[in-house]
Amino acid sequence: MLNSYGHLYVHIPFCPKVCPYCSFYKEASDRNKTAAFLDAVLAEVDRRMESMTLRPRTIFFGGGTPSALSTPQLEYLLGGLRSRLDLSRLREWTIEMNPATVSLEKAILLRDLGVNRISMGVQSWDPGLLLTLGRVHSAEQARRSFAILREAGFDNVNLDLIFGIPGQTSRQWEESLRATVALGPEHIAAYCLTYEEDTAYFERFAKGEFVQDENFDADLLETTMDILGRAGYGQYEISNHARPGRECRHNLAYWSGRDYLGLGPSAFSTVGERRWQNIPDTAAYIAAIAQKEWPVGFSETVGPRARRMERVAFGLRTRRGVRRSWLVDKEAAIREFSDLGLLETPPGRVRLSPKGRLLADSVAEELA
């Protein structure tokens, strides 16, 4: 009997411009390569379906910039998936969009093809900080794009924001939060900037041009929790805030340790104790598919102990926390963190307190 997998991720690597802080696999848009890439993704689906059933509850198109694809290209890819997959149990289909690549025609097409959730990377409403981040859109363009999504009928929209940007002040961050709340999206993701290897920002950080102040970042996170909480957005994960019932189902499945399948270059998959990553190279990915080879660049076995540690590390970042039974060997640490006001222990569970969320990584490191 074929196994059935309920969570599907599709990586679209193309970007109109490569941002200097982004560590995800991406490359500049290439019209000549795109058609072959789309065929390769659909061919990978066909090959996977020879040994598994794809009946997704959630689909997530990430990148890169999925919306960098043209309207005909999106119609070809999404239509190809619709004709191949059993979507009878699909509850959430998210696609990431850059404000510079939103059009009414594209938004209506996505809605008609079954996409019901948009995640748009605004990052900041401050013109100077957008320039610092190397973004290709303006604040006004982001507002117009949000209005277009509403006009197209999307009633589940996430807006991404970044704090800890070099030169950013507390006042600028508060203004970005309030401007976002004023638009009324259903979901707001607020991420602290991290300096990842293989990025232009990391090189500048290593040279001392950029400095990260963890105490200042914690203050900005506390501001985030306060402003968004007062506006009715529940913090269901450290960086994610949503109106009731509008939490991202796909990410919740990931944080809960559910199996998921990834398609496209660099995409990860975890199935049972198997984990693999597709080749993080679009040309090599296309070539492997054309030669009827699996486009896998890395694979490993993830045993029960490692899976448990991952579930603890991710689960502690969420509002529900983790089962206390997963931490039977950590009772002394639980008591210590509880006495410090960093943990809450409702019956059978362990979760971070609001104070503990400011030190989430340190607490998780001790408990995982």
Give the total of beta strands.
17
Please outline the major beta sheet: 9 strands, mixed
Low-confidence stretches: none
CATH class (first level) name of the largest domain:
Alpha Beta
Average pLDDT score: 94
Q: Supply the CATH architecture of the largest domain.
A: Alpha-Beta Barrel
Helix content: 40-55%
At the third CATH level, what is the topology name of the largest domain?
TIM Barrel
- Span of the ends, CA to CA: 35 Å
Instruction: Give the overall shape, derived from the CA principal axes.
Output: globular
Cα Rg: 21 Å
Within CATH, the superfamily of the largest domain carries the name Aldolase class I
Task: Tell me the strand order in the biggest sheet.
Answer: 9-10-8-7-6-5-4-1-11
Judged by helices, strands and strand pairing, the structural class is alpha/beta
